[in-house]
Amino acid sequence: MAEHKEEPVLESVMDKISEKFHGGDSSSSSDSDDEKKKGSSSASAAEAMKAKIYRLFGRERPVHSVLGGGKPADLVLWRNKKISGGVLAGATAIWLLFEVMEYHLLTLLCHCLILSLAILFLWSNASTFINKSPPNIPEVKIPEDVAVNVALSLRYEINRGFATLREIGHGRDLKKFLIVIAGLWLLSVLGSCCSFLTLFYIVFMVLYTVPVLYEKYEDKVDAFGEKAMIELKKYYAIFDEKCLSKIPKGPLKDKKH
Predict the structure, then answer these.
(1) What is the CA radius of gyration of the chain?
(2) Cβ atoms of residues 211 and 64 within 8 Å
(3) pLDDT computed for residue 114 by the predictor
(4) Which of 23, 108, 215, 236 could form an SS bridge with 63, CB 3.0 to 4.6 Å?
């Protein structure tokens, strides 16, 4: 009888212990659920804050996708430092040759072709005497689709430039007119200070360094850009109120009857 009495006591004790463990598990699971909810809410709040952050020029996509993606964007953003560094070193060497050493483009091309043809000619004739195979000269051809795509891209950009100039000439967009005039004036000043190759090299260096630096410090740059845009809009509103609004506008479009 004593054994039968001890068994239910032991069972009740074990039930209480198991209830405590299950209770702890349920509380821990509820805590983990709360933590997940908090984490998801904080993540959604962070995404909302990122969406509200001001980006230059109204940019909504990453810098890589804005630059077109693919290998050109990887090259500009220094995804492969060896290739990007090699391109930069090559452009610098070309600028040093033509600007610092005052080498001429036609002379350089002729000297490179003379050297290449002489090496290939001597190698092809000497291969019979030294019992080695002649050089394998690859056949170089420009693919038709590449040439067509380049021509279409140039045609599109040139037509867009002509359309912009035509729109400005009609006198309907004063803001765009002032921006284009300021840009052309700045380009003329730079052209008078340096040669075309130096100007091209400066533009290349800007395009090759500014995007990667902007991608690295985009939050700070965007915050500064937001403040600058607010100030520019303020000064432009004052300038528009005092000067631009008093200038007579160009002829309007004919009204449709």
Answers:
(1) 35
(2) no
(3) 95
(4) 215
Position 155 confidence tier, pLDDT thresholds 50, 70, 90: very high
Report yes or no: 212 and 77 within 8 Å, Cβ to Cβ. yes
One-letter amino acid of 159:
N
For the chain, how far is it from start to end, CA to CA, in angstroms? 111
DSSP code, position 56: G
Handedness of CA 103, 108, 110, 114 (dihedral sign): positive
Residues 123 and 135: beta-carbon distance below 8 Å: yes
The span from the CA of 247 to the CA of 257, in Å, is 28
The answer for residues whose C-beta is within 8 angstroms of residue 105's C-beta and 6 or more apart is 98
CA–CA dist 138, 79 (Å, integer): 30
Q: What is the pTM of this model?
A: 0.55
Q: What angle do CA 162, 166, 167 make, to 5 degrees?
A: 120
**What would the two tokens of residue 257 be?**
């009857």
Residue given tokens 């100007």 in the structure block: 199
Rounded CA-CA distance 107/114 in Å is 10
